Amino acid sequence: MAIKMIKLTEEQKDCVKFRTDGELLIRGIPGSGKTTVVLERAIYLSINGEQVTPGPKVLLLTFNKALSTYIKQMVRASRDEVVEAMTFHQWGTQLLRDSGITNYRTISDEKEGFVKFAKNIIRKYGDLILPSAKVHGMSEDRSLIRFLMEEISWIKNNEIKALPQYLDAQRIGRGTQIQLTKAHRETIFDIYEKYQSILKGKRCMDFDDVALQLIDNSERILSNIRPNHVLIDEAQDLTATQLKAIKSLTMKSLTVAADKGQQIYRRGFSWKSVGIDIRGARSKYLGKTFRSTKQIIQLARSLQHHDKQLINDNEFLPLADPDTEGPLPELLISGKTNEELKTMVRKVRQIQAAFPKDNIAIIANSHDRLEEFEESLTEHGIGSIYIKSDEADFLIPGVKLVTFHSSKGLEFDHVIVTGLQEGKLPYRTMAPGDDYEAFIATERKKLYVAMTRAKLTLTLSAVAPISPFIHELDINLYR
Fold first, then answer.
1. Domain 294-472 belongs to what architecture?
2. Where residue 3 falls among pLDDT bands split at 50, 70, 90?
3. What is the pLDDT of residues 193-236, one digit of tens each?
4. Which of 80, 273, 276, 442 is most buried, judging by how many CB atoms fall within 10 Å of its CB?
5. Does 10-101+209-286 match 294-472 in CATH topology?
């Protein structure tokens, strides 16, 4: 049964009904129907795909919990019981546990503390030869810990196991601010090894370890729990090791949907390098958007035009004008952050009066800011749903509160993008040693992704001093 009464285009049908073995890459611009096609193909595979093991017949993996929850609700609405949907980390940890490889707890917020503990232990027993990693708005010690966290993650995602490998590795994407000497790398690797020892002692692993454990122990994972057909949505933001792990454990077919223009995490890999064969007919392109109006797309394109590295990339997908017309996007400017709360309440009421059965998304940069919006809306008698849990209902009308990162892959009738303030977007503090141009490009993509979630109307809410990204927008394309 189809998920919705949607008439697929010939290009979309070609993706859905593509052969049921091997790999398939679906590249598409925002609103081109990538998620719909992935869902329809999942159901097609559940009916027509071969099941070679007793494991899950069809597994749909996503980048974040919000998109996973949305897809689960869509699958439930289709009454298809064969398709399973979850995030990579949910699937990976479950597979490791079911295989008896490890039942270690996965840490997230505690990582910073563990890295700091490891650094202090190394300092106690020897010289701590580390580069200066000071960044604006952050203490020197905190900056150094942030730098070490990033470097440890890089070591893991490049599958570096020993010091000689690390000493020889070419470090790309770090920029010119921090130059690592041999002594620096030796100290960093000591801290990395101590960090891993601390994790093991506490029976923990971090998110990067999940993919590595799957790769290193793939032979121990029995075929009867391996998935037959795997589909990945928003694959551009997975790491190389995550994609390698998925590829190595997929029994029959792998479908990957991606758009480099929406990549908000920098991942240095090619599809070939992770073992995914997309030659010839195995690579499909969806170039027409069905979500947003022409006015929204034109404004988003004027922003994207400033990302020179992206538009010169061979995987870049240019935005084409859709057929649907709509009002010009609106820019609202508040003098202070508290004024923005009042502005948002007025705007939500205005939209609800005109479109009582539609959904509205308020997109913000942090959970703290969303909680302030939630409180302000409640005070004025406006209900809202905070999209941060598995319980959030995407399929009912109303106001949804969502972060920039969690908005990926989602769509809403009306979108209000908030907090467009200098120091907030782009964020004032980039990762220590990061490449400045790459950092700005990533922050710009966050705004681009948020803008292209809108179907009917788009409102941009800036707070003085306004974000420099506002000045990149074509002044003739908003009111």
1. 3-Layer(aba) Sandwich (3.40)
2. very low
3. 999 999 999 999 999 999 999 999 999 998 899 999 999 999 98
4. 276
5. yes
| Close Cβ partners of 109 (under 8 Å, ≥ 6 residues apart) | none
| Residue that the structure tokens 């508040």 belong to | 334
Alpha-carbon distances of 372 from 104, 334, 362, rounded to whole Å? 35, 16, 12
Query: Is the pLDDT higher at 63 or at 132?
Result: 63
**Residue, of 147 and 94, whose pLDDT is higher:** 94
**Beta strands, E only, 204-316:** 204-206, 229-232, 253-258, 283-286
- Alpha-carbon distances of 173 from 154, 177, 265, 268, rounded to whole Å: 10, 11, 12, 9
Q: Which residues are annotated as a binding site?
A: 28-35
Domain 10-101+209-286 is classified in which CATH homologous superfamily?
A: P-loop containing nucleotide triphosphate hydrolases (3.40.50.300)
Strand 229-232's sheet: what is its strand order? 83-87, 58-62, 229-232, 253-258, 22-28, 283-286
Can you give the residue ranges of every domain in the chain?
10-101+209-286, 109-205, 294-472
Length, in residues, of the chain? 479
**What is the DSSP-derived secondary structure letter of residue 28?**
E
| 2 pLDDT more than 50 | no
At a CB cut-off of 8 Å and minimum separation 6, what does 142 contact? none
pLDDT 10s digits, 425-479: 988 766 655 678 888 999 999 999 999 999 999 999 999 999 999 999 999 999 9
Strand ranges (E), 210-356: 229-232, 253-258, 283-286, 330-334
Residue list for the binding site for ATP: 28-35
Would you tell me the crossing angle of helices 240-249 and 207-216 to the nearest 10 degrees?
40
Look up the pTM and report it: 0.89
- 426 upstream amide cis, omega within 30 of 0: yes
| pLDDT bucket at 1, cuts 50 / 70 / 90 | very low
